[in-house]
Amino acid sequence: xxPLLRKPLMNDQITLPFHEIRDEHFAPAFAEGIQRAKTNLTxxxxxxxxxxxANTVEAIEFLKEDLERVSGIFFNLVSAHTNDTxxxxxxxxxxxxxxxxxxxxxxxxVFARVKAVHENPGKLGPEQQRLLEKTYKAFRRxxxxxxxxxxxxxxxxxxxxxxxxxxFSDHVLKATNDYILFVDDESxxxxxxxxxxEDAKSTATAKGRPEAWAFTLQYPSxxxxxxxxxxxxxxxxxxxxxxxxGMKPPSDNREILKEIARLRxxxxxLLGYETHAHFVLEERxxxxxxxxxxxxxxxxxxxxxxxENDLAELKQIKKEQTGSEELHAWDVAFYSERLRLQKxxxxxxxxxxxxxxxxVIAGVFEHARRLYGLVLKERKDIAVYHPDVKAYEVRxxxxxxxxxxxxxxxxxxxxxRGGAWMTNxxxxxxxxxxxxxxxxxxxxxxxxxxxxxxxxxxxxxxxTLFHEFGHALHSMLTHCHYASLSGTNVYWDFVELPSxxxxxxxxxxxxxxxxxxxxxxxxxxxxxxLEKIKKSQNFQAGWMSMRQISFxxxxxxxxxxxxxxxxxxxxxxxxxxxxxxxxxxVPGTSSSAAFSHIFAGGYSAGYYSYKWAEVxxxxxxxxxxxxxxxNREVAERFKQNILSRGGTEHPMELYKRFRGREPDPKALLxxxxxLKR
Length: 677
Known about the structure:
The structure is a single chain. The chain is of the alpha+beta class. It contains 27 helices and 9 strands.
């Protein structure tokens, strides 16, 4: 039997059969899954008995179980370990998945039954009521009230969007993988961390250039190069290469992204919304473009002056070292590193020896145990989809209850897209009538181990690991009946709270003590080094805030208005990002053409949610600071009211139950020191 169509996955003895799955299994599994879903849909539509919550709303919830099992594995592999076969299949399958969703949401008979239950729900529990509301809104927000002609227009738009999103993502991956900068001037590389240099030498040798060093656009290579390469011409070259991804054939995203933005606007108008942003924000904590804009404007008011001061410091240090104060985008990381050394006597290389990946993993697991009573144990007998991946069994410390499986995939490769993310191969919830625990994964692109050194992380990489593990905790600790409401299935401007709050422990002395140990001697991080970290916490906070705000405004430029049909996306960005721009535009570069978050990653009209969630996490962590960063009472409140509840209630109600009040919007500005300037 096709391993993708088996139905166990119910208990702690069953794991995902990665060792049996082959590329050729996916197409027939999708075909079978789609057919089973269509059969279930027909049953619901043709049911002549009175509509009830069970025979209609729950039936819809469970309609695509087999298909969701298949797609949960497939689309995660397309992101984490892809190949030409999977990418081609994704382009074929995505429109079919969109078509199936429309077959459901545009079915007038099914909607009539949902509407009947919505008008006469009977006695329902809170989670059932939430599922009913979510289901009814899904129909309304996706065309159930449209005419037949407009329903067909919607179907065509969704087919196109499904195809275009994958094309955009594929182009970014190809552009990233196609670029290599070979450097044979060893003198300009002396400050680059040894592990990064060793990896660069290995890459160059594999490419037939053993006399050189090879740097790529993958962040573990790009980041250190921009920070430490002393030749400005080379920093400029690789920086422009990164900023020009998606801007030229054969990976040109310019027309694709304009078409995506236009189709999203057209779709929103068809459904009765002013813009795509109005459509998206109807189901967010920040419920309107006006509210998001007001939020961003307040951040801009405090962040812009601070960012100007931050860049003025960089101009000054460049002038001192080169005689020129003309600062460029490719100078920021380089002179920031020098300024940080000057102000705090702190180098990344000084920190890396204390952040061996294995120790950091053990540390984040210990945080999970101390805060939430979770125990993670590596299982080498569990099949994985790539040799780099590690698998863990998750149990509750107090009663040994099985909580799920956790997969960790840390290192870059050509088959993996850039960045870091958390995902589920299987959501927690009811499957085939039985409540199942989740199969959770985090995927990162960290510095790889070399022949002479283990993987030694930067402080930012440590924060990334804690961030993604925070998402994982949201799934591991959830206890919901319905998978569509469990774990991270919450409003997108709430989903980053569990992840971003975890970053706070990275710079707490009690947190660092659990994992910051020298990889050779085992000695704990010296107090003097810890103090440097704490003093530098808000280093260039204004500049970093402005960078995020710029992305937020760019997202809204494409999605909170009629995007029109700009001739040049460079001009479009120049027009809409004037207040967040600090450097002249470089011809042939843009932020939009490789902005996968909003054009292929689900964050359209929602990139602001990172900053929104920073407010929530800053406010929430204040309570931990007041009571103790490992206070179990506070952690239990966070677990019970945030992590375990998924999307079963409105997030503001969940937050108020945890905190006792609504979040303080000033909390983030206070934490970053931006109110003092």
